Amino acid sequence: MTSAFSQTVRGMRDFLPEEARKLRFIEQKARETAGLYGYDEIITPTIEYYELLAAKIGEENKKRMYVFEDLGGRKIALRPEFTASVARLVATKLQSAPKPLRLFSTGSLYRYDEPQFGRYREFWQANFELFGSAMPEADVEIISLTDSFLRRIGLRNYRFKIGHVGVLRGIFNQEGINEERQNTIMQMLDKKEWAEALKMVEKSGASQRCLDSLKNLLTTAGGDLAATAKKIREIVDEYPGAAEAAENLEEIVNLLKAGGLKAEVLLEAGFARGLEYYTGVIFEVYVPEMDIALGGGGRYDRLVEFFGGGKIPAVGVAAGMDRLLIALENQGASEFRWKPERLLIIPVDRSMIGDAFKVASMLRADELCTEIEIMGRSVTRALSDADRRGIAFAVILGPKEMREGKVVLRHMIKRKQRTIDLDDLPEKIKEEM
Ligand code: HAM
Known about the structure:
By secondary structure, the protein is α+β, with helices and mostly antiparallel strands. The protein contains 17 helices and 17 strands. The site of histidyl-adenosine monophosphate (HAM) has 24 residues, from strand 6, strand 11, strand 12 and helix 13.
């Protein structure tokens, strides 16, 4: 029989226990990383005013927002990211909080993207934002933290792609290209539509020198950080704003190396992102097996000010937990598959149910994952059910043994059982785990 309720809404997924456990493993590691780096968790609403969320995320992202009117006639939207909400807090309730201010958030986000591999309409991020410092060490902290988080979840062979919004915008500013036009060009570059982007720059009345520099930048990328950074600086030599950005980028990559970052880093001068609020360094994380970003971030020094909170520079990163789950699965990572061994207490008849609850409490107090047989099954049927569900140990409670302070402990895989003192039960189970 097919149910009329079998479908989830397009782009939405159910996380069955195994998947949910893996997602929560990643989230737990993100929370641990936040703790280690001094990032305090905040929880903001899933729904915000449309104007706030749409403010600086760029035309493409704006079109993909879930927007609706609530019953009170307010124009609201499901959050497509955390950054706007966190910046709103920093512009308002946290405006006078001592700086630096380090904030962590995690939860689900919504974008009306075309569903495909690794792209969902509801997805999950672990988000870290650092407010108050315009120094390159703040950028380096965010990138190092990302590296540390990815290492903790067991991801291998990932690399950072790093660029700087200020290099391209510095050129555009000097060429007199207005901000709106710049944003359109950046969107094109984000989608690697280089020819179209160059055409638009040309149409905007840019000089030949500008076009030559841009063409040069778009092909400048490399893993030799010092050499690539130097080349970028040379290309934009005659554009003071862009040159300053290139110097900042160089300083950041030098600090990353000095700080011992081991992950591979690729500098890409033509790298752009669709989010409009970025003002400085931008980066994404990739693994060789997948061509979609596992995380992304960058510096955004004007968003808090835009929300009325004064000049508070900021840099942050969001890791895409759904994509990390896929990447870890692909790499055969083991720790995130881990699942605690479970025990099942089987009362031989109903007279033992009270004891079953008592013994279960005792085992749980010892941090052992314990279930009680509550289906009224016979011992034989309960054992075969335990087998089917991958239970590691069964504890069988019979009236005669209980009177003597004893229980039967059965190792389900070895199919061996023995009678032991109830008092020794937690210890004996742990020995056999
Ligand atoms: P973003 O690059 O839009 O940045 O998203 C960060 C990550 O979220 C992506 O790299 C990707 O892993 C994941 N992600 C994005 N969209 C989807 C989707 N439709 N399905 C699955 N995963 C997705 C931001 O959101 C910025 N707020 C990051 C940031 C924080 N910048 C500064 N602070």
